[in-house]
Design brief:
Layout: E1 2-6, H1 10-21, E2 25-30, E3 45-48, H2 54-60, E4 67-70, H3 75-87, E5 93-98, E6 115-118, H4 119-131, E7 136-142, E8 147-153, E9 174-181, E10 184-186, E11 199-204, H5 209-221
Parallel strand pairs: 1-2, 1-4, 2-3, 4-5, 5-6
Antiparallel strand pairs: 7-8, 8-11, 9-10, 9-11
Length: about 220
């Protein structure tokens, strides 16, 4: 893919390195000359310009990008970059960084955002995931809040131990997508038996999360 990243700070550079390592073409756009350091990500294309300027994005060839990532430390800038990328250049996928969780409600399709990533909320979710055994934890919001990635870790003495996946009475608009067991990633089959310590990852709409809780969490607690 060809990916443009607005913001070449620590976050933008880290994203760029990961994408370059995965053989993608990366362009970093940064307006602060002090942040321009081609040696930091040598394989990337560096552009010294303001990503909020329409002419800058035109000159950079944003319309040829598969993905635009608004990764600056300023939510207002990230919203403007997202809106321009989507409405003026019809970029297929726009990802935006949310710095202040209070602004999350803005980062949706009205501002051209396909996926928003709130670092504070994500870190909080990961902390909860690490300590919350036997409870449902929301890890990630997908499709502007239409669905979520949620996780349940089965406790040591779960009554679900040994029971097959098919016994989980999951509601509509939900799916068990992965079981993490030790160092393994298991694509669940109907006959697979559940084990204590399994991390169950579900994709589900917000409306059915309580039903998942009833089917898995309450059962796991016995």
């Amino acid at each position: 893919m060809r990916v443009a990243i607005a913001g070449a700070g620590a976050v933008g550079r880290s994203i760029a390195r990961e994408l370059v390592e995965n053989k993608h073409q990366v362009m970093l756009i940064e307006r602060d000359l002090g942040q321009i350091d081609p040696a930091a990500v040598e394989e990337a294309e560096w552009v010294h310009a303001d990503a909020c300027e329409l002419t800058t994005l035109e000159d950079a060839g944003i319309e040829s990008c598969d993905v635009v990532i608004a990764a600056t430390g300023d939510d207002k800038v990230n919203l403007v970059v997202s809106l321009l990328a989507k409405t003026e250049f019809a970029v297929r996928r726009v990802v935006a960084r949310v710095n202040d969780p209070r602004n999350e409600w803005l980062f949706g399709e009205n501002w051209g955002v396909d996926v928003s990533v709130s670092t504070p909320r994500l870190l909080a979710a990961l902390v909860e995931e690490a300590v919350a055994v036997g409870d449902l934890v929301r890890l990630l919001t997908l499709r502007q809040g239409q669905a979520n990635l949620v996780e349940v870790t089965l406790p040591t003495h779960t009554p679900l131990a040994g029971r097959p996946v098919r016994d989980l009475a999951l509601p509509p608009d939900s799916a068990l997508v992965t079981i993490l067991r030790g160092g393994r990633v298991i694509v669940p089959q109907a006959d697979d038996a559940l084990e204590p310590g399994d991390e169950l990852l579900f994709v589900a709409t917000t409306a059915v999360e309580e039903e998942i809780r009833a089917a898995v969490v309450d059962s796991a607690r016995g």
